[in-house]
Structure formats: structure tokens, C-alpha cells
Amino acid sequence: MIIGVLALQGDFDAHRRRLKQLGAEVVLVKKPEQLDQIDGLVIPGGESGTFLKLLGEAGFEKLKQFVHSKPTFGTCAGAILLASEVENPKQSGLGALDIRIRRNAYGRQVDSSIREGRFIEGTPNGSPIEMVFIRAPKIERIGPEVEVIATEGNDPVAVRQGRAMAATFHPELSEDPRVHQAFLDLVGKGTKR
Ligand code: GLN
């Protein structure tokens, strides 16, 4: 099982380290053709508008094909890229998740914060989990096929739909490995199918 981490910009190295800790083989993806060699992809945080620029039209199309056929996990800017609808400002999304997401939704005063949310995966009532938010987006609408896997207050902050998974926070910056483990489990299921 080879996991790629999109390494165009942003905090890809923390993802690489976490995935390695969990026993995955990890490659940093810098060229579109590398997508053909991986079983799953992590799109890290960063600046989603910059990602779009760096990808260009061809890179965007190639990535779109990938996220519709193989497991992908986006955090923060990565979550924005995976969405079907992006606000503030409007920009293109890859459409792997039927969600509307608003960029920089917490405003300037709470640019970054560490909060306790609930991780629902595997436990009926959820269990507490640390969440690091950095100029985070908010998921404003979720489609009928979208499953909420973590919440913070009343907000869904991690979701999954089919092979795509996203978190508006940065699990790679906390010690808790459960969110990445959930993604590796998803990739494991995909490769067995
Ligand atoms: N604010 C960034 C964006 O809109 C996301 C921030 C992040 O990835 N930490 O793309």
C-alpha cells in the first residue's frame, strides 16, 4: 500500500511522518504522473487558491480523475479542494465530496486555535480528540451521501463520502493518530476490493 502526499506546497511533511509512523509506505507527489503509482493520496493544508494555480488545468483534471477513483484525504486547504462547492471566494472544487465549504470561516480573531472536538468513527457517541484549526474553512452543507466522522461544537469538521475523506482541521499536528488511521483503513478496504 503506497500513500502519496501532494507536495506542491503546505505542510506535507507532517503528514508523511505520521503515515510512516503508522506503517505506510509514503511518497511525496510532485508530478501528475506519480498519481498512477499510488493507492491513496493525502492533500495537505496550505492555501487552496495557490494549489489551484500550481496544479494548472492539466494537473487539476488529472487530480480530479484520481480523487474520483482512489481514496483521498484532504485536510484544511485539501478539504476545500475536494469539495463540490467553495465559497469566500468561489473557486473550483474537485467534487469528490458533496459539500459546500466556506474558506477562512472563523474570521481574523480566531485565525488559529486548538479545540477539543469529538471523533465519531468507531464509537457510537464519539470520543474527545484534539483539533488544530489554522485559518480553517467551515462545512456549511453536507449532501445526503456524506457521513460525518468528527464534530466540533455543532459543526461537522471531518466527513467521508465513498473513497474521499476530509477534515477542516490538521490531525497531522496533533499526537493522536486516529484520523490518519481511519484513512489508511479506507485505503486498505479499497485495495482489497
Ligand atoms: N485558508 C486556507 C485556504 O483557504 C486554508 C488554510 C489551511 O490549509 N490551514 O485555502
Structural notes for this entry:
The protein is 26% helix and 35% strand. By secondary structure, the protein is an alpha/beta fold. The strands form two sheets. The chain has a nine-stranded mixed sheet with strand order 2-1-3-4-12-11-10-7-8. A three-stranded mixed sheet has the order 5-6-9. It is globular, with a radius of gyration of 15 Å. The protein binds glutamine. Glutamine is lined by residues 45-48, 76-77, 80, 103-104, 134-135.
Count of DSSP E strands?
Answer: 12
Instruction: Flag low-confidence runs.
Output: none
- Oligomeric description of these chains: single chain
Mean of pLDDT: 95
Question: What keywords describe this structure?
Answer:
193 residues, alpha/beta, nine-stranded mixed beta sheet, three-stranded mixed beta sheet, 4 helices, 12 strands, 26% helix, binds glutamine
Describe the secondary-structure layout.
Elements: E1 2-6, H1 12-21, E2 25-29, E3 40-43, H2 48-67, E4 72-75, H3 77-82, E5 83-87, E6 97-102, E7 112-119, E8 127-134, E9 138-142, E10 147-152, E11 155-161, E12 164-167, H4 178-192
Parallel strand pairs: 1-2, 1-3, 3-4, 4-12, 5-6
Antiparallel strand pairs: 6-9, 7-8, 7-10, 10-11, 11-12
Glutamine binds next to α3.
What would a concise description of this structure say?
With 193 residues, the protein is of the alpha/beta class. It is built from four helices and twelve strands.
